[in-house]
């Protein structure tokens, strides 16, 4: 069965860094396109970024991220990471990892993690 288990959320001060982890079960972490999403209180869920499993391995970044966030995958550990730097209070949200069960970052993800709370203090 497909399962995504997240960890690494918590409280961080503005300007600090945080790394989220998403460990997969039921498939290898680099088999399909995977993305990170977030949802702040009172706002719609948005895609933070997505990494493709196609030949070019393209990474798609959301408008809110710019160059502050980056994604990586460790096949040996079956884990995807979201490295967040220069964080600000606007990054406060519940963060979700997801897999598209496809090579490409198109459409909607098919499976989601449980979400992990990230809070950035002023």
Please describe what this structure looks like.
The protein is mostly beta strands and 122 residues long. It has strands spanning 3-7, 10-13, 18-25, 34-39, 46-51, 59-61, 69-74, 79-84, 93-99, 111-112, 116-121. The protein is 0% helix and 48% strand. It is globular, with a radius of gyration of 13 Å.
Give me a quick take on this structure.
By secondary structure, the chain is an all-beta fold. The protein has no helices and eleven strands. 0% of the residues lie in helices and 48% in strands.
Secondary-structure map:
Layout: E1 3-7, E2 10-13, E3 18-25, E4 34-39, E5 46-51, E6 59-61, E7 69-74, E8 79-84, E9 93-99, E10 111-112, E11 116-121
Parallel strand pairs: 2-11
Antiparallel strand pairs: 1-3, 3-8, 4-5, 4-9, 5-6, 7-8, 9-10, 9-11
Global Rg: 13 Å
**Whole-number average pLDDT?**
95
- Percent strand equals over 45%
Uncertain ranges: none
Label the overall shape: globular
Structural class: mainly beta
In whole angstroms, how far apart are the ends? Answer: 40 Å
Report the total helices: 0
Q: Any key phrases for this structure?
A:
mainly beta; seven-stranded mixed beta sheet
């Amino acid at each position: 069965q497909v399962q995504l288990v997240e960890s690494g959320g918590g409280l961080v001060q503005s300007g600090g860094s945080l790394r989220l982890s998403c460990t997969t079960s039921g498939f290898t972490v680099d088999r399909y396109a995977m993305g990170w999403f977030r949802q702040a209180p009172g706002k719609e869920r948005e895609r933070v970024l997505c990494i493709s499993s196609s030949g070019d391995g393209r990474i798609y970044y959301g408008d809110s991220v710019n160059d502050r966030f980056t994604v990586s995958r460790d096949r040996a550990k079956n884990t995807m990471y979201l490295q967040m730097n220069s964080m600000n209070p606007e990054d406060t949200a519940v963060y979700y990892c997801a897999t598209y069960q496809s090579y490409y970052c198109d459409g909607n993800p098919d499976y989601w993690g449980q979400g992990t709370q990230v809070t950035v203090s002023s």
